[in-house]
Amino acid sequence: MTGADTLVLRRLSHLDGDTLSSLVEYGRSALGDSALDEWLLPVVAACGWLYVGIVGDEIVGAAEVIRCRGEKELYLEGFYIRPAFQGQGLGGRLLALVMAELAREGHERITATRDPANVAAARLYQAAGFSGSRLLRGYYGPGRDRLLVSARLGGRP
Ligand SMILES: CC(C)(COP(=O)(O)OP(=O)(O)OC[C@H]1O[C@@H](n2cnc3c(N)ncnc32)[C@H](O)[C@@H]1OP(=O)(O)O)[C@@H](O)C(=O)NCCC(=O)NCCS
């Protein structure tokens, strides 16, 4: 059995201090300065959807989701697997579990952006049914372009 088979999904709606510190550190280790910090993670937990993937007693990754203004559309703000756990199928499994859970809640579509040069993210999103190729120039500031991708939840793209 691989780690991906044993991955458990948990939604956190409240963060105690230790969990918050750990998530800030894990996010930075995977996403650098684009990771959500201690000011935003509790807000996403309380008002959006903060999921963690757990293997054994370790949080191995997280997904941070907020609602778009459009009624049924969500935005995947952050998604990562901690570096030590990457490349074992955990990212694909975590994303599939998150999307299934959000579909069960009745949400219809999820959008994300990715760095055009991020090959792992490209493959991850493609395998999860995301498509789209709109380039958002300077989305995160000069030189920080992003590709806009989206997927239907609970069905075909
Ligand atoms: C992107 C990320 C979540 C993938 O998680 P992971 O657990 O390593 O991915 P998986 O093992 O489930 O593999 C998912 C796909 O990515 C591919 N992949 C994983 N690491 C890769 C790498 N370094 N280079 C190229 N492809 C890679 C896998 O081959 C697989 O593709 P396939 O289904 O076509 O075979 C992880 O690398 C990460 O957290 N990166 C830093 C943060 C980030 O980029 N997040 C996405 C933000 S948009």
Structure classification = alpha+beta
Question: What sequence of helices (H) and strands (E) makes up the elements?
Answer: HEHHEEEHEHEE
The CATH class designation is Alpha Beta
Radius of gyration: 15 Å
Report the span from N to C terminus: 30 Å
Could you name the CATH topology?
A: Aminopeptidase
Q: What is the strand arrangement across the widest sheet? A: 1-2-3-4-5-7-6
Largest sheet: 7 strands, mixed
Mean pLDDT: 95
CATH superfamily: Gcn5-related N-acetyltransferase (GNAT)
Architecture (CATH level 2) name: 3-Layer(aba) Sandwich
Helicity level: 25-40%
Number of helices: 5
Could you characterize the architecture of this molecule?
The protein is of the alpha+beta class and 157 residues long. The chain has one domain: 3-Layer(aba) Sandwich (Aminopeptidase). The protein is 32% helix and 31% strand. It contains 5 helices and 7 strands, in the order αβααβββαβαββ. The protein has helices at 3-6, 17-31, 41-47, 90-104, 119-127, and strands spanning 8-11, 49-55, 58-67, 73-81, 109-114, 131-136, 146-152. It has a 7-stranded mixed sheet with strand order 1-2-3-4-5-7-6, sandwiched between helices. The longest helix is centred in the N-terminal third of the chain and has 15 residues, at 17-31. The radius of gyration is 15 Å and the shape is globular. The mean pLDDT is 95. Coenzyme A (COA) binds next to α2, β4, α4 and α5.
In short:
With 157 residues, the chain is α+β, with helices and mostly antiparallel strands. The chain has a single domain (3-152), classed as Aminopeptidase (3-Layer(aba) Sandwich).
